[in-house]
């Protein structure tokens, strides 16, 4: 890994130059962070699980025509992805009240929202990723009107797909965060889904018990974080084993909504 050129290191992933022009190797770390990096830990096996879950979701989205940066999984911790220019926005889709919407608007956690709500946040850690409006986005030229429309439409399609996928696995999709990028093809520019979709970027609750199966377990010191991620993978049919042993075993073979 030291022989490759590192392009960027984030809180949960490292990006390296890919083997061919226009490609990137995305490496999933075991690092866990919360509250704008104020809380940190290393959770053995988390990166492996996020890699596998995100691959599974991205392949499914590709099959229904959602353009993504994903090309293929290389090994237990790495994916080959298209190089894109990241749009500096986080797009959050909410189906059930949780997190900051409960704090901001006083909606009780767990209450079904009247409809799915899409929110935009400015991707800037030092500012705490503030919530913004479309007016801010266009005024500061972070994205065009067309790109906003594309991101909105794709987010709602992703929501429909994920709701069905997770409901079939006995999991309630509470909310999730997406990132998008510009993929340049000659003179053409296309908005594509980027980053990852995993329990790091989604709130996932057991459909019957509402037990949390996502990064909130880390945020709230609930414990058994990697075990919960492994259970999500098991229910999706990605890994047959469940619990910490599955994650550790795969490590031997080879990182969220607001």
Structural overview:
- It is a single chain.
- The chain is of the alpha+beta class and 258 residues long.
- It folds into two domains: 6-84 and 226-253, Phosphorylase Kinase, domain 1 (2-Layer Sandwich); 85-206, D-amino Acid Aminotransferase, Chain A, domain 1 (2-Layer Sandwich).
- Helices cover 31% and strands 32% of the residues.
- It has helices at residues 46-63, 100-105, 134-139, 145-168, 216-219, 225-235, 244-253, and strands at 6-9, 13-17, 23-28, 31-34, 39-42, 70-73, 78-82, 85-86, 89-96, 112-122, 131-132, 171-185, 188-194, 202-206.
- Strands 8, 9, 10, 11, 12, 13 and 14 form a seven-stranded antiparallel β-sheet that branches. The chain has a five-stranded antiparallel β-sheet with strand order 1-2-3-7-6. A two-stranded antiparallel sheet has the order 4-5.
Helix/strand/pairing class, anyone?
Answer: alpha+beta
Please, what is the CATH homologous superfamily of the largest domain? Answer: ATP-grasp fold, B domain
Oligomer: single chain
| Fraction of residues in β-strands | 25-35%
Average predicted local confidence, pLDDT: 92
Whole-number total of structural domains: 2
Termini separation comes to 32 Å
Largest sheet: 7 strands, antiparallel
Rg, alpha carbons = 17 Å
Q: What is the helix/strand order? A: EEEEEHEEEEHEEHHEEEHHH
């Amino acid at each position: 890994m030291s022989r490759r050129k590192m392009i960027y290191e984030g809180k949960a992933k490292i990006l390296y130059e890919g083997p061919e022009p226009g490609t990137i190797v995305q490496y999933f770390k075991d690092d866990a962070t919360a509250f704008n990096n104020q809380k940190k830990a290393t959770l053995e096996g988390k990166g492996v699980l996020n890699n596998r879950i995100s691959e599974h979701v991205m392949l499914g989205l590709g099959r229904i025509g959602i353009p993504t940066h994903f090309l293929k999984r290389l090994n237990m911790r790495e994916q080959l992805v298209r190089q894109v220019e990241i749009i500096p926005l986080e797009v959050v889709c909410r189906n059930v009240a949780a997190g900051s919407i409960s704090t901001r608007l006083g909606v009780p956690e767990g209450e079904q929202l009247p409809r799915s709500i899409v929110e935009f946040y400015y991707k800037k850690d030092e500012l705490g990723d503030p919530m913004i409006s479309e007016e801010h986005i266009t005024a500061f030229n972070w994205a065009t009107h067309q790109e906003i429309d594309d991101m909105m439409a794709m987010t709602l399609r992703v929501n429909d797909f994920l709701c069905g996928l997770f409901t079939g696995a006995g999991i309630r999709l509470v909310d999730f965060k997406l990132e998008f990028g510009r993929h340049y093809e000659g003179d053409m520019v296309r908005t594509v889904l980027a980053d990852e979709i995993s329990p790091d970027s989604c709130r996932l609750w057991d459909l019957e018990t509402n037990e949390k199966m996502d990064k909130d377990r880390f945020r709230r010191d609930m414990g058994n974080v990697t075990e919960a991620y492994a259970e999500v993978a098991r229910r999706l049919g990605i890994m047959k084993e469940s619990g910490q042993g599955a994650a550790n075993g795969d490590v031997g073979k080879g990182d969220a909504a607001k």
